[in-house]
Design goal:
The protein has 434 residues and is of the alpha/beta class. 41% of the residues lie in helices and 18% in strands. Helix 1 (5-11) packs across helix 2, helix 11 (261-273) packs parallel to helix 12 (286-299) and helix 13 packs across helix 18.
Length: 434
């Protein structure tokens, strides 16, 4: 349970030395209790006190490193309460009973679905191998999965195979084999996935693993009532302070809905929102990836911070100082949509990004953040007239009303108005005569 300000104050040196930047030790303690600053800001806190504070103030849900991807660490049940911290990861699934041709097909699809959206790489991060009973064949499939370059997950109850696979995540520990699987995970340096016939059994197994020092765990939601389990586990960790349930979760949609890619995609979307840290599917195609990755990106952005790009001059298609300029706002989605269409046109253009608070064109215009004055100020701050020889400026079509005002603020500039929709920019730029 988190410590209160007075509890923290009792651990401080109580000298009011101000070395932490606060006027008193009590003020420092209150800020630590609120999460505004960390306890190590006090240079005189004893190691014992820091250790106690670290344990008491850490998030109720542990952060687990899965092959370089952070999972867990969440502090709220709902994104709008504050923000979600570490986005979930996707995995395709290979089975030892698949043919080489089937496996190659899944891996080729995996390689193909890899693109950028709003400055983030969109791809399935993991490959899961369901080992089955044939250990020799499982070893072959594991090597194929490893060659993909993605994070390796193995699903097996065989401790010897689990240890030899040296996967980032081993799925297969339960009440009957947790000791052997724990040793295998330790030997391989792997995160261990724990399952249970019931939540009570799962909880008991996690407690046993914690008692022997293993807190590098994820919780397997199983196939029955997986969503209900996900919600109950997350609520127990965040609302009830049950740290034995304070771990990321893994959900195998391929096991819940075998052979049904549509249902698997629907389940994956559900668990993106509530609360699958690792989501396993049979395949990852563009049809599944586009909506899932877009949903994940929207859910795992801070709702209190607009998605922005830095203001400045962005040359496109080899634009030089004499190439025309197109101006728009710093909302990230606007930038990537507009820049993408300008690139498709093949015409050189300097895209000017102004500081509009991270809002869309119409929203920033309505709020007074994208106006003739703000554009003129941007031109002055960026020294546009000395950096560029062109005197052609293209405004977004939805703020055509600004044309006259911009001409007054920027004498000598030929101000044009683009179409309303970004998709029309390709034709517009190709037909543009200056």
């Amino acid at each position: 349970m988190a410590l209160k300000g007075l509890d923290i104050f009792k651990l401080t040196p109580k000298t009011n030395c101000k070395d932490c930047g606060n006027p008193t030790c009590m003020a420092f303690s209150m800020k630590v209790a609120q999460g505004a600053i960390s306890a190590d800001k006090c240079p005189h806190m004893s190691p014992e006190a820091l250790a106690k504070l670290s344990e008491a103030t850490e998030p109720p849900m542990k952060t687990i490193d899965l092959g370089g991807h952070k999972l867990g660490g969440e502090t709220v049940l709902l994104r709008h309460e504050k923000t979600f911290v570490n986005r979930n990861v996707f995995s395709v699934k290979l089975r030892a009973d698949m043919t080489d041709e089937e496996i190659d097909s899944v891996l080729e699809e995996l390689k193909a679905v890899d693109y950028e959206r709003i400055n983030e790489r969109m791809y399935a991060e993991c490959v899961c191998v369901d080992c089955g009973e044939d250990k020799a064949r499982a070893a072959e499939v594991i090597e194929k999965a490893r060659s993909s370059g993605r994070v390796l997950i193995v699903k097996t109850r065989d401790a010897e195979l689990a240890a030899s696979a040296k996967a980032a995540l081993i799925l297969g520990a339960d009440a009957s084999n947790w000791e052997a699987m724990n040793e295998a995970a330790k030997a391989a340096g792997s995160v261990l996935g724990v399952s249970g016939e019931s939540l009570a059994e799962l909880h008991d197994t996690v407690e046993k693993l914690e008692a022997v020092g293993n807190k590098n765990l994820v919780l397997d939601l199983g196939t029955g009532d997986a969503f209900k389990r996900a919600v109950q586990i997350r609520r127990a960790a965040l609302k009830d302070g049950d740290r034995s349930f304070g771990y990321p979760s893994v959900v195998d949609t391929a096991a819940i809905a075998p052979g049904d890619p549509v249902l698997q995609s629907e389940l994956a979307a559900l668990f993106v929102v509530r609360y699958g840290s690792v989501i396993i599917m049979d395949r990852m195609t563009y049809a599944a990836a586009l909506p899932l990755f877009g949903l994940r990106q929207n859910i795992f952005t801070d709702p209190q911070k607009p998605m922005k790009v830095a203001p400045g001059i962005y040359p496109i298609n080899g634009a030089g100082p004499d190439s025309p300029c197109a101006v728009t706002v710093d909302f990230a989605l606007t930038y990537f949509v507009v820049s993408g269409e300008l690139e498709r046109s093949g015409m050189p253009v300097n895209l000017l990004i102004t500081d509009a608070g991270g809002y869309s064109v119409l929203t920033s215009w309505a709020a007074g953040k994208f106006s003739a004055n703000s554009i003129a100020s941007f031109f002055a701050e960026q020294d546009i007239e000395n950096k560029l020889t062109t005197r052609t400026l293209i405004l977004p079509g939805k703020v055509a009303v600004l044309k006259g005002e911009v001409e007054n603020k920027l004498p000598g500039w030929n101000v044009l108005v683009a179409p309303n929709e970004a998709v029309q920019l390709v034709k517009y730029m190709r037909e543009l005569k200056i």
